């Protein structure tokens, strides 16, 4: 049996593997490679003994079909398995161990199992993809992200939206002789949606400056976009920039006077903007008092 090696390590998690049977060193999975694997002797435990595996985990679930597309997983355990697979060779069998710890360095979970990488279908490098494939991949990751938001898995959704954006940017520079104007318009609309979705994720973690920048980028492409204006309003308010927040929410109400969320936000901001104006008036008055 070969010596145990470290696949990846950080303060809260360490991944190790030991090669049992070597594989073909000429075939190694990378981003978007399709892998067929089998698992054996799965053990999940903590200090008290056997423990449950996260329900969102696909690879260790009872319904797992043995197929993995590298880079297309969302659960943190699945993504750690992807890291292991990317350091395996086709045909290899290894013993893998993932150890998770909390901030006090206490054991949270330890997962161990045998992995047999049966087959790897090599894919083109992303840099060699056609614009059509990049665009389809961008839509795929965006839709996955939307579903994750519905499941309230915001961190995983942010990662999907980021990947979608990466695929979209990879199409640039756009060749007008290859990509028609209508398709360019669709790409711009997708870009705006991604900016908005990324901003939504940032707002869930009170990252107001990041959300503000994303919304402003969206508005450069679509100045009348209600979601961008509304979310930038929230970001401004979170940064106590109430006048800017008020301007954005009023812009929303000019576009759609019946927008319920905008009306509620305007009512919430009204006393704050009133105080800002009163404070400003008092400062001006003091300037002219002898």
UniProtKB/TrEMBL annotation:
Keywords: TPR repeat
Keyword Acyltransferase included in the entry's annotation: no
Domain of life: Eukaryota
TPR repeats: 192-225
Protein's UniProt keywords contain Thylakoid: no
Residue ranges occupied by any BDBT FKBP like N-terminal domain in the UniProt entry: 11-120
UniProt xrefs under Pfam families: FKBP_N_2 (PF18023)
Entry-linked InterPro entries: FKBP4/5/8-like, FKBP_N_2, TPR-like_helical_dom_sf, TPR_rpt
Protein known as: BDBT FKBP like N-terminal domain-containing protein
Organism: Leptosia nina
